[in-house]
Input
Amino acid sequence: MRRLKVLIADDHELMVQAVRLALAEAEDDFEIVATTTRGQQVLPLTARHEPDVVLLDLCMPGMDGLACLEHLRARHPQVKAIVLSGVDEEDVIQAAFMRGAIAFIRKHVEARDLPAALRTAVRGAVAQPIFGDAQPQAAATAADEAGLSERELTILTALGDGMSNKAIAKRLWLAEQTVKFHLTNIYRKLGVATRTEAVNAAYRRGLLETPLLAAASRAVSL
Output
């Protein structure tokens, strides 16, 4: 059986490398034919490399993941689109499925489990499968200690993705003023005054760590 050709699209280069490393453990099954950190490059790269699978983040500059899903379904219906995202919101997950995603993988998935998740999704044995814990216990504990609600942790995760208030509002289907309100509470609870300080504090407290990025960071340090 030939290897499945995979295109990886994520706005964080380190996450792209993390996925590369995770799939390298199953190189007999997968061949990475292209990567990109920009949404508007997904369709041209798909046309050029004809991947079997597009592994797609929802938050990308130029064209967000939901728009990419719609265009992929219209122009390349033979390609299997799989979302890899840090989003935990049920309405966003369902929006991805409605736009043609065959599976949704949360970025909290363990690196060693990513190849198996892709295989399961591609085989289609389970309809609309979701992989990865909604919230790792360590992050949940850290959030509780900081007094952050589930919504505030989701918005903080979006900050870690480098998203603007407008982009966060669009992604979570909130009013921009509501996002600003949550950010004010996040800053107060973390004892910070800026977005950068909030993200730095979140990483220090273990609020934004993911197994995929942790594995990539360890590999880079070797």
Notes: The two ends are 34 Å apart (CA to CA). The chain is about 50% helix and 15% strand. Residues 137-204 form a domain with the Arc Repressor Mutant, subunit A fold (CATH 1.10.10.10).
